[in-house]
Amino acid sequence: MNTPSRLVVLISGNGSNLQAILDACKCGELNAQVVSVVSNKADAYGLTRAKNAGVEAIHFPKLENESRNEYDARLADYVSTCLPDYVILAGWMRILTSSFLSHFPNRVVNLHPALPDTFPGTHAIERAFEAYQRGEIEHTGVMVHLVPDEGVDNGPVLATEVVAIHKEDTLETLETRVHQTEHVLLVNTLKKILEEKVTRSY
């Protein structure tokens, strides 16, 4: 049996995608172990999910007068101590600078609830729903991509999945469907990455 890959997951909120990863690790779908969950927000429910799964849960606040680069360098120092194979951004709402990213080249994976080159940044599902109502788009989607630099939601794409928008949808029903798609796509993509890593190492 290959040694499980070590994952550090960064979150800012509810952590439903984190839960999908934890569940997939627990049932053996992912040959991986979440070694630490880090949130920039103290009240992120994802920290509770981590504790419930017996995983280290860290609130990592920005210090007063600390620059983005200083925060990211400090975060990178902490994450490095966890010896991660991959760092997963699962609803992490801060744009990471090269002070963090340069420590983990090709190993930072982000999940974004939109297709490539559409709706980067926050409120992507809401903006897609509004665009649909204006007749500008017929569907939205989800992507998983690498984060090589400070560009927002535009790194090399690992996987995408289209999510239909139905005329009877409300924002809530669309959000639910997007999140369900996220959970599956994220786990499947991580599975593929981890299997490729095993292939590469022999």
Please render the helix and strand layout as text.
Layout: E1 5-11, H1 16-26, E2 32-39, H2 45-52, E3 57-59, H3 68-81, E4 86-89, H4 98-101, E5 108-112, H5 124-133, E6 139-146, E7 157-164, H6 171-200
Helix pairs in contact: 1-6
Provide structural commentary:
The chain is α/β, with parallel strands linked by helices and 202 residues long. The protein has one domain (5-200): 3-Layer(aba) Sandwich (Rossmann fold). 38% of the residues lie in helices and 21% in strands. The protein has six helices and seven strands; from the N terminus they run βαβαβαβαβαββα. It has helices spanning 16-26, 45-52, 68-81, 98-101, 124-133, 171-200; strands at residues 5-11, 32-39, 57-59, 86-89, 108-112, 139-146, 157-164. It has a seven-stranded mixed β-sheet with strand order 3-2-1-4-5-6-7. Helix 1 packs across helix 6. The chain is globular and about 50 Å long. The two termini are 13 Å apart.
The backbone outline, from C-alpha atoms, is globular
Mean pLDDT rating:
94
Largest sheet: 7 strands, mixed
Number of strands: 7
**Strand percentage:** 15-25%
Write a concise keyword list for the protein shown above.
globular; Rossmann fold; 38% helix; 7-stranded mixed beta sheet; 21% strand; 202 residues; alpha/beta
Brief characterization of the structure:
With 202 residues, the chain is of the alpha/beta class. Helix content is 38%, strand content 21%. Helix 1 crosses helix 6.
